[in-house]
## 1
Amino acid sequence: MKNMILERFKNSLRTREKQHGFLASHTYLIGDLHNHCNISYGHGSLEKAIAFASQQLDFFSITGHFAWPDIASDQDIPISDQVAAYHMEGFRKLQNNWDLYRRKMDAAESESLIPFYSYEYHGLSNGDYTVVLRDTGMNLPPIPEAEDALMNRLRGPADEKEIMFPHHIGYMKGYRGINWETFNEEISPVVEIISLHGCAESRNTPFPYLHTMGPLERSQTMQGGLEQAHHFGVIGCTDHHNASPGSFQSGRTGLWASSFTREGIWRALKERTTTALSGDAAQLALFVDNEPMGSVLFVQDAKPCTVDLYAASYEEIQSIELIHNSRVIRRVHPSDETYVPSRSPTRFIALSFGWGEKGVACQWDVHLEVQGNVLEGVYPRLRGVDVVDPLDTVSDESTSEISRTGSDVHLKTMTSGNPTVHDDATQGFVLEVSGGTAGTLRVSVHAVLGPTVLEREFSLVLEELESGSVSFHLDGFVSPVIHCEKAVTLEQCTAEIHEQLILSPGDHLYARVFQTNRDVAYTSPVSFR
């Protein structure tokens, strides 16, 4: 996504030359560094996973389950023979598949997609960690037999060629949640706080922990770690177990990289210029005294500091918040501000495809043409069939494809209804168009619904979308639906906060953004020491 923050807030940034220089010299990239397929235990092929990542990510990893050194170490936490067996089989499978994994991942690298190797430790005592490798061609270590193997890695020293980050941190300590006592910020510059497991930012998380592994514990959250004086950046990853890296609204990482290269991404992770996203590629930039998010500022005593927060997305922003020492100190609702007519010709229009009867597959082949306006961008919202429990059974190998040629967008995908009334399994994308409201969207659909082939054409006038959404059923009641959201303006998708705060050693500060589609995004914290 192009640098909307630099373009939208350049007037504000003019008086802050260092901030402008940082944003002008960095590019905002989107990735997923922790997800699974059938190279260990999981579902879906490695080829499917790579193809899925190529549709909507800039960088990615496919993670192999590697080891659980203390699987039998604590008799107070019994583990069934079935659970132990499928884990051990998955670990052996990864060892056997590693050479194939390296070849396929290396072949996936291109000018528009950068892959990283990764593998995962489970741990009762210390929690689970993903190990991301900087370089291609690297080998797996031997499967550890010692119960303290993970602890030895966490003690250090740090290896410049790898990053170990904890994930699903919010589970109970001793039950594969994080152990803040053994956390090492040199080994783990970033922490995963959003995934299919839920969101572990705070007690008031928008996505609770509902997996079989248990509920969220307040002391285990991002805020719990910050209150214990730990410093770390934050990321989101899907932890998807069905070959779907970057699956929409399951967790993604945003980062400000000095270049769209392996080295640039690695440096951003090490420097913590990262954001944790649930879905949309919202751009967040937080500066304290012109230093970017992820920084540590050293101060002798309490001092006044200038805090600047910028947020930009392609979905309407509901609110932006500054959180100081786990307390919201400033909240802005852009939609509640005094209404100002849009001066921008830019509109964002979201289209979704799905609904219909649960379990009834619909194969979509959609062509959309923008007429009378300029198509500036297409932002995919593609989902895999959600799997986080390795014992779930999934056999589908289909994947979604989206492409753009000039003013035309082509989507091939599959939906099969929403699994519950609370789970969204639609597919879609967001259009960025400019040129006013006189344009038209022409949509042609070829759909295969069971034995029935449906051909449909729809026309959407942008002026009509200024006041509300429009929906079309393909074949009557409870048939699949095309839904086009109300157009939103650039002003509705951007917001900023500028504050003067008194900050002291031991303080921490970060920001979060809520969108009207339930998506949430977090900046990495700034810490004061």
## 2
Amino acid sequence: MFWRSLVGKLAVTILLLVSFVLLILTISLLQFFERFHIQEAEKQMMQTATKISDVIVDVDDEPLILDTMEKVKDPAARVIVLNESNGILSSDTENIDIAQINNQWFLENKDIKVAQLKNKALQKQIKLKENDVELMVVGKPIENTDAFIIVIQSLDVVNQTKAETTRIIFLAAGIAIILTTIFAFFLSTRITSPLIKMREAAFDITRGEFNTEVPILTHDELGELAIAFNRMGRQLNFHIDALRQEKEQMSSIVTSMADGVMTLNRDGEIIVVNPPAEKFLEDWYYEKNLTSDEYELPDDIREVLNLVIEYEEQQMQELSLQGRNWVMIMTPLHDQSYVRGAVAVIRDMTEERQLDKLRKDFISNVSHELRTPISLMQGYSEAIVDDIAESKEDKNELAQIIHDESLRMGRLVNELLDLGRMEAGHIQLNKTEVHIDSFAQRILNKFYREAERSNISLIFDQVIEKETAFIDEDRVEQVMTNLIQNAINHTKENGHVTLSVKNNERFLSVEVTDDGVGIPEEDLPFIFERFYKADKSRTRSDKKKGTGLGLAIAKNIVEAHNGSIYVKSKENIGTTFSFKLYDD
């Protein structure tokens, strides 16, 4: 790990660089001092030869010359004088190896003979074959004579000086390496310490801590880098906050839209979805018998997505689901050179498309509902006037029919008036604390005999977390009575009707489920409209007669409680009406 760190790399680099320089310098110094010591030794030997030669020129006394040799020369050196008759005058020496060299060797040595004949100076290093001793030999001719003076000395002295010099150089190099190592770690630590802090700050920023700042320890390039890093962090924090606010604003806009919005990627995965779009998907899952665990994109939407990716342009598609008409507009999302996904806007066009039709149908529906009782009343009243009914019992029967029809007309008019007031917002609620358990049980008890006559099972399912709810008891009873009555009327023998009540701190939820004939898909969008009847022929059996205003009134009562009412149904399988009243 150390070798991968910046401290290790920088320290090793400095050490390698300094070691390489010291190696080159050491080799150069060793070679220099080796030549220097040899040159200095040869220079001293030549000075010795010069002094002795001057004495020989001035003095002709051999003992005096020998005495001068002993005084002038180095004790470890040896001086030899060769005269014209090859006579040899030699001094003593303390070096045993040099002392063992006989005079004949000097007379026969080729280098000495050549220098003597040419009358030139001699400076040479010679290695004896007998004992591998290295010698330095310096010679020069004596002026105004044919004699030749030779000074010979062993290289051991030079080698000892060289070894001492080498030891000093290696010691200095070692000290330099140690100091360089300390300096390298100190320098690398000083350089990398701010970088380590910047790395830690960068990790903090990756974790979302954009307010992290690096301490400014120096005023050099690293200090300027720390200043730039802190400025970058502040700018990044500013832009992230701006993006977060923009995202929250966009999310709020999308969530509050009445139209469904979905963002998809190329693979058909849903990235963003708002509540209306979630409701659309829930209806699709219900129709396809899927659960939320089996989350997948509807096939119709996937086909449109494939077209958007293929043609890279906006596509529009109409969908039909649970009897409602939807229009979807899908726009591609471009990422430089390709489509990375799409945004789908899903709008429920059912109400808009049916608005004109409902306006036209309203008058005809009212006329139709009033025409039947009016016709009956007119016919039976004419029968009484024309004395067609002869007996009193017949007249009473006809009068009773006229009375019943007038009551039904009165109920129709009163319900129309009530519905008009509700839709105009003039409904008044008398809210009180109601015990939900006894309230629901009391409503259900009203239908037990009717259910028994039709051989239908009534089931009561309750989850009461809170005993009371703040509601208008009469109005909510009207809604539940209507839903239960409809469920019994449209359930065959041996069927089941289930009342499910759930009450907690947040809402009161009521569901009425039956396994009856169900509602055709094309009728579901209009189930809460005025005069809706699944019986298209409008025949009036004992079980199904009514004004067709009950569900419209129920919807307005629920909405007056700030609640919502829903219906889910499959033909020949069953229907579920549910509503929620939220706690204020």
## 3
Amino acid sequence: MKAPWAAAVIALSLASLGAAPATLRGYTPADSAGELRVESQFVDIPSAQGALDAVTAIAARPHYAGTPADYALAIDMRDRMRAAGISAELEPFTARVDTPRELVLELEPQPLPEAAAPRKRRGRHSAFPVALALAEAAEPGDPATAARSIGVPFIAGSGDGDVSAPLVYADRGTNAAYAILAHAGVDVRGAIVLVRYGAQFRGLLAERAQARGAAGIIFYSDPKDDGSARGLAYPAGPWRSLTAVERGWVGSAIHIPALPISAANAQILLAALRGSAGPAGWGGTLPVGYPLARGPGLVHLIVKLNRKPTTLWNTVGIITGVHGDQSVLLGAHRDAWVYGAGDNGAGVATMLEVARGLGFLLRAGWRPQRTVVIAGWDGEEVGLAGSRAYARRHSIDLARGCFAYLNADTNVSGPAFAAASAAALAPTVLDAARAVRDPGGAGSVYDRWAAQTAHGAPRADTPAGVSDGVPFLTETGTPVAVLNFGGPFGAYHSSDDTLAYAMRFSDPDFSLHRAAAQLYGVVALRLADAGYVPYAFSGYSAQLRSASAQLAARTARGGQNADMPSLVRAIDRFSTAAASFDRGLPRGAGDIGGRELRAAREIDVLLYGASGDASTPLPELASAIATNDATLISAALGHAAAALQRATGALTT
């Protein structure tokens, strides 16, 4: 549980922390002093009350993508940025949005005829005496969870289906889980599989079930993973209650019906199975067996969705810089599955408090060297629709001069600080953490981070499936960073993600929200105002070497003939150039050349990939190796070497 933090937050003077370097990366000594004065003014503006006001408005009612409430919040964000003195407009776009038309889950717990096959059914039948209630139960003490407007949980991207089939519990839905079932003689073909969340992105779990011939998939969250086995469940604590359901999106390649249910409903289904016990580690902690079995319970699953092109709305605020063709982009998605106080009211509130701080600087006469763009994305929960639409619409501007994208998504859910970034931005992220006061202590956020780090000094993690950062990082190569105060978040994608939950457990006094806005603002200011954008390239070297070594080991195990040494030589040449560049980073006034951005874009697209929420280093090469196709592997190695050569050339020009 989160410890209470002091309600009063001391106004910050960055120099008083004694952690900021005398000369900032990319600045002259004189310009460093001026930058610190600007940052000192900025960090005093974001407030806990301002963030609370924003989250209160955001979480006032459900605002799924494309709903009137979603549009109203797009307008509200625009108007709040305008009130701060920032030019802001809506950018409408069209995306597919799914909504439920019919959702049914029924159970016949009687024995099935041997080798029963899935049977199509229409509507509810007396042969299925147990009809499971799919709506979430209201939580005591949180009236918002009782609202009729919440709706029944569903999976966006699910296929339509009306099937009756034996039930199979497939544990976490991994390849290993299906191997265990196969070894036990349990056939999942034609069955409806019950899978507990947590191992991988739900879309990958659905694709695997579909590929193995399942007739449908049902997801649930087990108390072992994010519920009462971890600690007190909501409303007594921050972990998931038995009746809360994780909604979600599975991508665009699923044609079998998919449905999310609560742990309470999963317990009813599991009780209908009869079979031998699974191996150690199989199953969760519900008071029921998790057998290796096909039935005898028969499940009737109906999923029918409305799928239609829908107008959605990005909110975009712009502070035009001296060099208008160069920019720093910040963003957070606005849509939510239900109330979204944490996911992603926290992110939107962070952006709005950054906007208030920058607006204050504007009125005081400041103007950034580079344009600062602050965005509220729509449709993130249904496939990163808003950020992808923006990246397509503004692809030329992004390629020409967007030096960073800073993403805030569910960025305040507890007291543990962490960050992830492309290697180019990592030093700037670390320096910003040193420059912002810890809201719960006398030191900096970096000091909090260090105290929570088991071994060695804190470091930014490798970015993985960084939400709306994915289109920018993996498609345009824009370096991405995220900064989070994290903790148990059992309300994820459920109707429990309310203002009451946030105020009880995530951040009772909203001081972490304030610190988040200060951090994002300081990073944005240092990137926007630097004489030379303070990229660092040496951090890429270790990541490239680690990824190539892992892939080389995989090719060796598979007996594949891949010229991995040529890739290693290209990495070595790049590493030499990167180290030389970092040692000679210009510290003076003047405009950064495009070569540094070109180098970062080449390496980011080459190195960073995402498979759901997981990182996939060297994604093109990894994908080629997975196919075991020598032609594809050779081509991927050639592309990687060429990208490294272009990056090396850019750094040594």
## 4
Amino acid sequence: MTESPPPEASRLRLWPALVIVAMAAFAVFAVPLLVESRSPVHFYGKAGGLVGGPMLLLVWWLTVARATGLFRWLPAFLFAIPAAAFIAFIYGKAAFNVLLFGCSFVALVWLVWLVIHRLFGLGGLRISVYLVILAGWAAFGLVRIDQTDSEVWPEIRWAWSKTEEERFLAERAENNPPPVPTAAEANGNVVKVLPGDVPSFRGVNLDGRVVGLKPKSDDWSASPPKLVWKHRIGPGWGTFSIADGKLFTQEQRGPNECVICYDATAGTELWEAAEPARFYEGIAGAGPRGTPTIQDGKLYSQGATGMLQCLDAATGRVKWKTNITADSGGVVPPWSYAGSPLIADDKVIVYTGAPGGKGTSAFSVYDGKLLWAAGDATHGYSSAQLADFGGVRQVLMLSDAGLESFAPADGKRLWFFEWANKFNRATQPAILDESSVLISTGVGPDQGSKRLKVTRKADGTFEVKVAWEARRPRAYFNDGVVHKGHFYGFDDKSLVCVDLAEGKLKWNAGAIYGHGQVLLLSDADRLVVLSDRGQAALVAAEPEGYSELGKFPALKGKTWNHPVAAHGKLYLRNGEEAACYDLEK
């Protein structure tokens, strides 16, 4: 005779819990495939399944599972108290990693054990449930989730392992970092922006275009670019600006947010300018997001928490600094300030996100004083960008409000194309000609692209109309490039080519590069595509069809940073390492 299960186990009503798990699994795995990517349903379905599932299981346990007495309440406390402890003492601002992944894991372990107990008629139900819940939290404590990938799946490491940042800082300490150059040592050494340099984010025009560079090899699989140097680097999601044989970037180094100058030829560090600040969130991880801008021997940087600085580009010494959250009323976005400074005449123009029509602000290049603040931007990750429409020089800012245009001199809003999006926008407008601009969004309910026609009327005012709109491309946080009447870039995580005359899709390469970034080598009709896992690919910039000409592993780890090329070299970085490759040898 088969031994019947213990009475207490047989009394438990398990089927509602199994239904809850099935519903949560459908929300997490099926809903993102069935609905528009990056839509509210996409996000809320996944988050709802991972967070709502465990919460509903708790409700099931306390109400209809038929657990009685202490056995009804103690498992719930053993589930909730460790979760709260992980949030309070370990994960902090990244609490959602506990709610999304820790609670889901432990709740699933708990339920699986109940099912096993029922199927095999095991004894000692109560004590085993207590131990299984605690063991689940203990197992979760053995790993660490510092960040996630683009799909918000965790990147898991052992809890006792060092982070890449810790390894970098330890190596740097052993190598005795160079001292900051003194004013006397740098006397007469002014960093100049030379022809072919990249003095700002994505180049002078923020368009990701490189002229005069043709790779020696077209087959990057058989004959990849030669590695010149590679080394560890502090976390950060901006890229390099290049001037006068020097690379400038921003990194997190322990408690300090740093602007760093490297020698472009050797990759060695020349100076560090450190500011006490650290931004961290559980998706990207730690580190600043912006890219420094170089002009007239000075370097301008915007930190993740709002520190706007002007440094001497030769030495890294501070000329002035201002906190834009204090001085302009700016509000740090959920994923931090990510824009790069725009220099327009005697002004440094950045996104500040201040409410009350002060979302974009201009500061004096001489002393950092606030000169004007204007616009409706309250949530954005784009950089201010210069354009010339109707013979009028103007500053563009893309944000949650839409696309705004300002007069650089006084911040007067010249025109506004309203395209509200409460989620976020993180890409740059693409200037197509003297009267056209392409804007795109890949998050929220109204995804797609719009080509705008900007016309200056006889009275000097501007009229903005939609020339065409299309579902593709849907730019998430990946900037595209414009070449010979076509757009090349990412539609969510698929590399595409779009005809700019009518907005028609020419080809779709699919999601083979993840959420990568694109650089245009215009004279060669080639794209450098850097995948979100650090592979560099050479792709033909031709509308007839997608053609990859080879690829090679350039970096390790998550790579969201833009590639940069200058003087025959390709410069790459992510949150773990930086590298230089020679494209002409």
